[in-house]
Amino acid sequence: MKIGIAGTGRMGAAIGQRLMEPGARARGVEPHREKTRPLAAAGAKVAATPLQLAALSETIITILTDAGAIDAAYRGKDGLLSGNVSEGFSSR
Questions:
Q1: Does any domain span residue 86?
Q2: How many helices (H) and strands (E) are present in the chain, helices listed first?
Q3: Which domain holds residue 39?
Q4: CB under 8 Å, gap of 24 or more: what pairs does 14-21 form?
Q5: What is the rounded CA–CA span in Å between residue 15 and residue 59?
Q6: Domain membership flag for residue 83
Q7: Which partner for 44 in 26, 37, 56, 58 could form a disulfide, CB atoms 3.0-4.6 Å apart?
Q8: Nearest CA-CA partner of 19 in 55, 71, 73, 61
């Protein structure tokens, strides 16, 4: 499973590393690029934007600390919701 993590600070990185243990392919995105280093060192891909993270992932976990970070990750330029969010969903 391709899991994306938006917010790869201390907790997000720990969750990502734990999820990689059973073989999931974790990816991360973080506006503070230095926070992605532990996941990248463990073999995760680092997305440049939340939109790219969404395109590369089957599931996304968000671990963001404040309303501004949440708004930017979801609704900002190249945010998680700026792409085709209905792609892959069925009406059933």
A1: no
A2: 4, 4
A3: 2-75
A4: 15/61, 15/63, 16/42, 16/44, 17/42, 20/44
A5: 14
A6: no
A7: 26
A8: 61
84 located within any domain: no
* Range 57-70 average pLDDT: 92
Please check the confidence at residue 85 and state whether its pLDDT lies above 70: no
Burial class (CB in 10 A: 0-12, 13-18, 19+), 31: middle
* Domain count across the chain: 1
- At residue 25, does pLDDT exceed 50? yes
| For residue 51, pLDDT beyond 50 | yes
**pLDDT-based confidence at 71, cuts 50/70/90?**
very high
Beta carbons within 10 angstroms of residue 62's beta carbon: 17
Residue 19 lies in a domain: yes
List the beta bridge partners of residue 6: 29, 62
Q: What is the CATH number of the domain that holds 41?
A: 3.40.50.720
State CA 15 to chain mean position distance: 11
Token pair of 70 as six digits: 């949440």
